[in-house]
TrEMBL record:
Residues 143-154 have a biased composition (Acidic residues). Residues 129-161 are annotated as: Disordered. The keyword Zinc-finger applies. GO terms for molecular function: zinc ion binding. Keywords: Metal-binding, Zinc, Zinc-finger. Residues 78-105 form the Zinc finger DksA/TraR C4-type domain. A zinc finger (dksA C4-type) spans 83-107. This is Zinc finger DksA/TraR C4-type domain-containing protein.
Amino acid sequence: MTDEQLKSLKAQLEQMMETLIQKQQNTRIVEPGEEVLSNHPAENASDLTEQTMELTLEGERDDELRLVQAALNRIERGTYGKCVVGGEPIPFERLEALPTADTCVAHAEQLTEQQKNRPVEEEVIRMNVDKPMKGVQGREGGEDSLDELLEEGSSDSPSDQ
């Protein structure tokens, strides 16, 4: 990679960083207890949806900002444009398309394939119906939990009588 190409990529990364920082500063997240509740549930739902979406975008911007900062650090150290896995040069075309790239295409594909092979959480973390828990008085599972609670009652109010 030529010095001119490196300067161009550095300028692109700096511009990306500036844009991300501006977006962070322009984002206003409502703090707990600060929200103004509407009388209409649909407005509350819309506000909550917008807030959730903004928090998600903020997290993505934080991740992108870390990637940009890491790329700028690699430029300063003189390691930018070299694959962090194998050490071979990353083609300029790849860096031009994705200035934060830290791996060559081959290693990026390997890493992506490894991530694809990660088990789906639902396959690993699920209720174990093959070996249910022993419940109160030898009952298994938790299917009778509501019945047990209702037998005890919830309060001494007339509605429970």
